[in-house]
Amino acid sequence: MPRILMTGAAGGIGTSLRKLLRPIYPDLLLSDLKAPADLGKDEKFKAADLADLAQVEAICEGVDGILHFGGYSVEGPWDSILQSNIIGGYNLFEAARKKGVKRVIFASSNHAVGFYPRHHRIGTDVTARPDSRYGVSKVFGEAVGALYADKHGLGVTCIRIGNFGEMPLDHRRLSIWLKPEDLVQLCRIGLEHPAIHFEIFYGASYNERAWWDNHRAYELGYRPTGRGEDFREHAMAEQARLKPDPVGDHYQGGTFCSLEFDGNKDRIVDWSKR
User: Fold this and answer.
1) Dihedral angle of Cα 168, 174, 176, 182, to the nearest 10 degrees
2) Are 162 and 177 in contact (CB under 8 A)?
3) Nearest alpha carbon to residue 8 among 218, 161, 144, 112
4) Which of 23, 33, 148, 240 is the most buried (most CB within 10 A)?
5) What are phi and psi of 207, to 5 degrees?
6) Backbone angle region of 100, left / alpha / beta, with phi > 0 → left and psi within -120 to 50 → alpha
7) E strands in the chain
8) Which pTM value belongs to this model?
């Protein structure tokens, strides 16, 4: 029975996935800076600071695969992102190498490519266009993952997560929504599929408005069960409550693009006026 380590166990995605993963991987080791408030008696937990390599090596001992959801999960000050996502991300891959871990799933983000316009359909092989310091950290993590796959033989899967949750909550999220059960599918492909060397998937369910070409995930067996359009009425009602955001509404990264934006607005198309 494989032992799987999940970092970021106390976060939003980690909290949801814990319940879905336990029947599949009974030997699931959870980690975060602090234990989840609802940690069950039958759940295994070890605290670790990702910025401390020795602590990360300790939680990787005897582990077969890693689900890396830990780190700073939103835009923030550079030093916070540096410690958690840049140094922490490197430490995770280096500890995995030292401890003989076979597979690593890296939780990347749509914000690694957030400055592509919404009308531009992209694959996983496009040039990175991060929309934030947070997005930059995810580009870094993908690059480190590729290095450790090619140089050290780790099987690495990067999942550019869209919007994770029970339903899409606005117009943008109809294109990028990811149902929790579908994320579990992608994780299982990364942990179990024999063809994995280095892969990038988009973390998105079956969304008819999708901006992303996710054919590689489908080739390896991905069959999402979530469909964004099933929640169209609710999402559009919520969208109507939001103020217009010309920058965020133009780019795939949404408000991450408009935050602190002082670039060239002549490149932005206001589709509401066409």
Assistant:
1) 60
2) yes
3) 161
4) 148
5) -115, 115
6) left
7) 4-7, 28-32, 44-47, 65-68, 103-109, 155-161, 163-164, 177-178, 198-203
8) 0.96
Provide the residue ranges of all domains of the chain, joining segments of one domain with +.
4-273
DSSP code per residue over 70-102:
-S--S---HHHHIIIIIIHHHHHHHHHHHTT--
CATH class of the structural domain 4-273: alpha beta
Q: Mind listing the pLDDT tens digit for each residue in 87-138?
A: 999 999 999 999 999 999 999 999 999 999 999 999 999 999 999 999 999 9
CB distance 104 to 56 below 8 Å: no
CA triplet 40, 164, 84: central angle to 5 degrees?
A: 70
Closest CA to 140 of 44, 71, 197: 71
Catalytic annotation, residues: 134
Q: At what angle do helices 133-152 and 88-98 cross, to 10 degrees?
A: 20
Q: Do 141 and 84 touch, CB atoms closer than 8 A?
A: no
Q: Which residue type sits at 30?
A: L
199-246, pLDDT tens digit by residue? Answer: 999 999 999 999 999 999 999 999 999 999 999 999 999 999 999 999
* pLDDT tens profile 127-169: 999 999 999 999 999 999 999 999 999 999 999 999 999 999 9
Helix (H, G, I), strand (E, B) or coil at 138: helix
Count of CB atoms within 10 A of residue 36's CB? 16
Partners of 65 in beta bridges: 4, 103
